Amino acid sequence: MEFTAQQIADFLQGDLYGDASVKVSDFSKIEEGKKGTLSFLSNPKYNHYIYESEASLILVNRDFEPDSDVKATLIKVDNAYEALAKLLTFVERLQDRRTGVSELASIAPSAKIGENVYIAPFVVVDENTEIGNNVVISSHCSIGEGVKIGSGVRLHTGVKICSKCVIGDDCTFHAGVVIGSDGFGFAPTGDGSYRKIPQTGNVIIESNVEIGANSTVDRATLGSTIIRKGVKIDNLVQIAHNVEIGENTVIASQSGVAGSTKVGKNCVFAGQVGIAGHLHIADGSIFGAKTGVPNSIKQPNMAYQGYPAIPVAIFRRSSVVYKNLPELQKIIYDLQRKINELEEKVNRDA
Amino acid sequence: MEFTAQQIADFLQGDLYGDASVKVSDFSKIEEGKKGTLSFLSNPKYNHYIYESEASLILVNRDFEPDSDVKATLIKVDNAYEALAKLLTFVERLQDRRTGVSELASIAPSAKIGENVYIAPFVVVDENTEIGNNVVISSHCSIGEGVKIGSGVRLHTGVKICSKCVIGDDCTFHAGVVIGSDGFGFAPTGDGSYRKIPQTGNVIIESNVEIGANSTVDRATLGSTIIRKGVKIDNLVQIAHNVEIGENTVIASQSGVAGSTKVGKNCVFAGQVGIAGHLHIADGSIFGAKTGVPNSIKQPNMAYQGYPAIPVAIFRRSSVVYKNLPELQKIIYDLQRKINELEEKVNRDA
Amino acid sequence: MEFTAQQIADFLQGDLYGDASVKVSDFSKIEEGKKGTLSFLSNPKYNHYIYESEASLILVNRDFEPDSDVKATLIKVDNAYEALAKLLTFVERLQDRRTGVSELASIAPSAKIGENVYIAPFVVVDENTEIGNNVVISSHCSIGEGVKIGSGVRLHTGVKICSKCVIGDDCTFHAGVVIGSDGFGFAPTGDGSYRKIPQTGNVIIESNVEIGANSTVDRATLGSTIIRKGVKIDNLVQIAHNVEIGENTVIASQSGVAGSTKVGKNCVFAGQVGIAGHLHIADGSIFGAKTGVPNSIKQPNMAYQGYPAIPVAIFRRSSVVYKNLPELQKIIYDLQRKINELEEKVNRDA
User: Fold this and answer.
1) What does DSSP say about strands C232-233 and C210-211: parallel, antiparallel, or unpaired?
2) Residues A169, A290: one domain?
3) Do A267 and A176 fall within a single domain?
């Protein structure tokens, strides 16, 4: 597919500067831009690349003003990164999508399959499942008994959705995701061993949720583990039983939320964050990388870091002092000695 | 299925308070309890829910005394959570279990399969494997060459057990678990690259072990990686080569144990704990979330936190001071200045 | 297979001490060594085992001198661990390897498959893939559209390689690895929700790379995520979109590298390390367990630990003082009080 700069400017409702007839047929990063490709500039840190880029067409933010000549045609838009996303999505949708059910899939007779669905080889769809329209189920997925899947859902290869779980519309789960594995619940028996607490609840995932490769979401002991609409979860993340994640919360890779914790909406977790169990986390909470949260957070829209989590500004200042601790300890012991000497001296002189 | 309060009290050997004829057919959380459901109250923190709960029947600990009227019938037991577990397990066992070997599975001719086994579609069972009685192998599992699996084992969808590994009776592995992947062993060659050390050992897992979704247990270089009986491992946990985990140790999500470390019995790991390689960890050691352990632990039954791990009581006190570090540093420098002034003054006056 | 001590000494070009005719047919750990097995001693910490070991033949480093009698025949080599690796590799290669394409695999007609390849049951090889010679693809692997795989590659069970990714020669990926899942890229839309940025790039993995079980490598938004030759990655590791990992870098379990970061060559990551996004990490950087790196590192060959990462020597000293913080705080407040008293006294006396 090939588009002119003018066609793209019209599609994005952007303002065009330069040759409107230039044609592009692929995307590129600005520092790797080649003739015939469209690139973008969003982060001012990378502004210098625009003067050398060979890309034919570059999307920029409306407030961008070049300091010197730019070879490429520019399109100014409100948000260059979002405009790129819109274009990429548009192009992705133009691509052919497979439909039909592979003869190599195992579909239970009682399963209800919607229209315009693709089911790949070696997929298992178990009894009493319901699968909506326009769903794509890639190879090696396992859809357990009684699962309900909304429309427009995309399951990449090897996704496992265990029995009774409910998936909303337009969700995307990447390769190896596990939804509805048993929660980690054991009661001590008194002799050091543990008795398993059967996990008889399920997982409910609302619409527009994306979950990254090999992440795991456990079913509730009783009731439901709930992921609200618009939540975005990265790879290798753990969501434990009976957790609730609020709308539009974003969780980066290798973070984990322990059992029965309720995370508010619009929160942001950086990587390798851990939240303890049975907590309430206020809306809009932000956690820096590797933060550990042992207590509930009541005040919304605050940023934290460290273990135990403290306000990020304090963490930054304290972590600077941390490096000085050996020196500070030495000073303290020196001061202690000096003061003792001074005291003696003053008392002797008195 | 429907049971009366009296039937349940008899089954649990509990004491019944209220209407013995009330019937229940499902479970509920106490705060979501509805008519016809059975709930439980174990943590005194949630006591207030019991006065509003619509659940028809509630299990409580023997020492629970209501402060005001409770609508539900109560059954007092020694341990309400354990009693619930017993009931859930009982109900789970009443449910039909599938048996038989799917025509869509690939079973090697030399495999020995026990009685009353279920093998789902798209399972691979390789040559010279032995699978005990009453085993359930869900879809997409891979059982490698020469693997031995005891009786009563349950493998959820997509579990991979690599060649020569040995699994004891009554183990449960959740979706995506990998047992017997190669240990991470490489020898430097001198030019900056590495030569792989072939990992020719196996993994031995004793009875009653449960392992969570997408966790990984590596085979030994030589000999065996060993998980002792009763161990409970959560999701996304890493057990490296030649590790041994002692009886009834519990390891929460995203924790990892590095190569050749021997963890004692009855230990408890919270989430995201890391233990370095080649260590000995004493029985009954307890590690708070995100603890990192760089050295062996000889004294049993102690609790640790932080990196490097220190006794939890010290960690808590030190982490409180951590927040004050910028202020303390300021005080120290102030004191230093004051003392210098005082010294000068005293020496001048002397 | 059975070899004499003399045959092994010749193969390894080592010096033989003891009975050259003794025969071995298996490997053992030195502390578990039995008659007829070959063991090794590399770490001087384990020297004492050699005097009790029942192993018939033991590889030792050239500088090893026994303090007392050793029953076993010894072979002295430059590096006992590397010599063992060489032997294990030799024996592994003697074992039969399967070839052929299973009738239970699903191979697209347009796929180009090399010679001497093994493809196991329930493998999917999609359209326009190219697979080199001597490749082993175990059960349940999924090879996406347009993927290119070099020669000598070994994919263990359940590996997923998504569309357009390129894998170099002699790579080994362990069970459950995901290559080419979507990067975690979303643009805020202004109403609290996010719009997905389609991830249209790929992953390029050069030769001799090994990746551990259930690890994930995301495709680039535009361009490529790149893993250079000789890189070794352990289990449950996350490599985000547009990352580049330099030659011969080693990354231990549960570590993660965030988006667009460029890691140099010959780096070493211990377990549970996290590197933030958009950074440059100098060649030869070494990160202790649980280190978190928020900023670029320019100086090569330095070792770091802690969060935020600081030079390891400083981290060690500071972490010792950390334990003393409550006591130091008390001393500081005491000193403050004493100085105030002294000041008063001195001023009063003056």
Assistant:
1) parallel
2) yes
3) yes
Please check whether residue C121 lies inside any domain of the structure: no
- Distance between CA atoms of A178 and A211, rounded to whole angstroms? 10
Same domain? For A168 and A282 the reply is: yes
Q: Is B342 on the interface with A (CB under 8 A)?
A: yes
Whether the CB-CB separation of C228 and C207 falls below 8 Å is answered with: no
Distance CA A154, CA A168 (A): 11
Question: Is residue C44 in some structural domain?
Answer: yes
Give chain A positions within 8 Å (CB) of B102: 106
The residue of C1, C141, C254, C307 whose CB has the most chain B CBs within 10 angstroms, and thus the best one to mutate to test that interface, is C254
Would you say A196 and A233 are in contact if contact means Cβ atoms under 8 Å apart? no
- Cβ atoms B175, B156 nearer than 8 A: yes
C 173-212 residues inside an 8 A Cβ radius of B: 174-176, 208, 210, 212
Residue matched to tokens 């303390």? B328
For residue C186, give the 3-state DSSP assignment: strand
Whichever domain contains A303, its CATH number is 2.160.10.10
Instruction: Say yes or no for a CB contact (<8 Å) between B186 and C250.
Output: yes
Q: Which residue in A15, A214, A143 sits closest to B214, CA to CA?
A: A214
Do A286 and A339 share a structural domain?
Answer: no
Three-class SS state of C200: coil
Q: Pick the closest to residue A339 from C327, B349, C325, C333 (CA basis).
A: C333
Q: Is residue B150 part of a domain?
A: no
Single pTM value for the model:
0.93
Chain C residues 107-146 with a CB less than 8 Å from chain B? 120-122, 138-140
Say whether both B263 and B220 belong to one domain: yes
Q: Give the pairing type, strands B124-125 and B106-107.
A: parallel
One pLDDT digit (tens) per residue for chain B, 350 residues = 789 999 999 999 999 999 999 999 988 888 888 899 999 998 888 899 999 899 999 999 999 999 888 999 999 999 998 899 889 888 877 776 789 999 999 999 999 999 999 999 999 999 999 999 999 999 999 999 999 999 999 999 999 999 999 999 999 999 999 999 999 999 888 899 998 989 989 999 999 999 999 999 999 999 999 999 999 999 999 999 999 999 999 999 999 999 999 999 999 999 999 999 999 999 999 999 999 999 999 999 999 999 999 999 999 999 999 999 999 999 999 999 999 998 888 888 76
A295 alpha-carbon distance from chain centroid: 23
User: Which residues of chain B have a CB within 8 Å of the CB of C339?
Assistant: 335, 338-339, 342
Interchain CB distance below 8 Å, A248 and C193? yes
CATH of the domain at A69: 3.40.1390.10
A302 domain residue, yes or no: yes
Number of structural domains in chain C: 3
Catalytic residue list contains A280: no
A271 and A166 together in one domain = yes
Tell me whether residues B158 and A142 touch, CB distance under 8 A: yes
Domain end residue (candidates: C95, C111, C143)? C95
Interface test with A, best of B24, B95, B322 (most A CBs within 10 A): B322
B61 touches chain A (CB under 8 A): no
- Cα distance from N-terminal residue to C-terminal residue, chain A: 95
Do residues A292 and A179 share a domain?
A: yes
The Cα A319–Cα A306 span in angstroms is 9
CA B177 vs. chain centroid, Å, equals 13
Do C287 and C328 belong together in one domain? no
∠ Cα A203 B181 C125 (to 5°): 75
> For residue A46, what are the domain limits?
3-95
Any C CB within 8 A of B21 CB: no
Question: Which residue among B76, B95, B114 closes a domain?
Answer: B95
From chain C, pick out residues whose CB is under 8 angstroms from the CB of B181: 156, 174-175, 212-213, 235
Select from B174, B306, B328 the Cβ nearest to the Cβ of A181: B174
